[in-house]
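Dear all,

This email documents one entry for the complex benchmark we are building for the journal club exercise. For each entry we list the sequence lines for every component of the assembly. Then comes the predicted three-dimensional structure of the complex as a token string, followed by one or two observations. Please use this as the template for your own entries, and keep the labels exactly as they appear.
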Amino acid sequence: MNKRVPLTGNDAGAEALKDVNPDVAAVFPITPQTELMHQFASYVHDGVVDTELILVESEHSAQSACFGAASAGARTVTATSSQGLLLMAEICAITAATRLPVVMPVVNRAISAPVNIGCDHSDSMFLRDAGWIQLYCENSQEVYDTVVQAFRIGEHKDVLLPVMVCLDGFIISHTMEGVELIGPEAARQFVGEYDAAFRLLDTAKPITVGPLHLTDYYFECKRQVVEAMATARRVIVEVGKEYGRLTGREYAIFEPYRLDDAEVAIVALGSTCGTAKVAADRAREKGIRAGVLKLRSFRPFPGEEIAEALRHVGAVAVLDRSISYGLPGGPLFHEVRSFANGGAVLVSYVYGLGGRDITPSDLQGVFAELAAKRQSGESDGVFRYIGLRES
Amino acid sequence: MSELLSWKDMPIGGIIFESGSSQRYVTGGWRTYKPIHAQDRCVHCLRCWILCPDSAVLVENGRVVGFDYDHCKGCGICARECPAKCHAIEMELDR
């Protein structure tokens, strides 16, 4: 029987890192991520793990230290939020293109300005094209499970990409709930010994990491990352199934909730999916056949599979907790729509920026609007907001 | 440059799994100015050899004998660091 303990999302991330026992962690504090690495640092201090913890002077240095450690062949982790992620962005792109499978919990927080510490997905969406796998979590249990799986996914020999495990700031990171842990023995067995694809410090086999490639090879390097992302789609599913056999909690590339007979549906990322499930249950009590598609993997983006899962749904709301200035709606909406093949009415809802609350009744309202649209076929605007003062 | 590998065949991550391959990468073509060594004025202090970022100062038996123009990018550090009294390295426009 596995241990079930009360943990916040940050605790759950720290527990997963502790159970995996990575070689190197390079850390810098930022709200709301701070407690995650604070907790992990206490495990390092107490000798519970063998991890070499590097206290750096900025997130740019944190990701740079990760790049160096991972190049040397170490299993490497860091964690950050918001401005911290933006500060390390330059090196994040280098880590991915150099194919270093660093694992990084990103505790999602709005980006300045105005200064704001609340949850939204603007930070990780800023790096959506940086070459990192992005997996989003609904709750603390998923944070623990996804961090453990992230090592296997990123380190797979045909993937070799860094992985962001995204968890909503405060909503998940600071909320305590029951989490079942598999413990260090099972976790370490699950992730296995790390055998890096290359090691900069292996003097018997000297290599050059980070050289110049101009018009001769740069383009081919980019194409390799495209292929690795495509392979990751399969590996995420395989690893999620294997984790399911171990724990009874199977993970896939997305999770359909009451979608089979749904006439209307919400597509979303992160903790809002839990809210949407409650709203779907309530909408069904009122006679609206509502469902939810909880997207777990935003990168790689499983466009064809999403389109297939939504094929029979009449009206779909795509919820974005981030915004794209100059292009109405948010990134998730546009990516879902780029794969949609006719039929369904698709509506974009931008919500929850800067930590603004989203409630089950907000989303019941969305289901009601979708049901009305489906009936009338009329559209009173594809691009909408939830919880915004407009007059 | 005739046998470039496809994305399927080349190593991942832009990594070069071979040491010393930069010898084959001729960077002399980047040069605008070219260092000229005057053997008769040189005292062979080797400052140029120590400071050249491209290891392009050729030394034999402890004496500067010239430059590796295949790899010298013409930065001029050698001429700048050459002791003023000798003035044994001068930069001239490389045509």
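Observations: The first strand of chain B starts at residue 33 and ends at 37. Helices of chain B lie at 47-51, 77-81.
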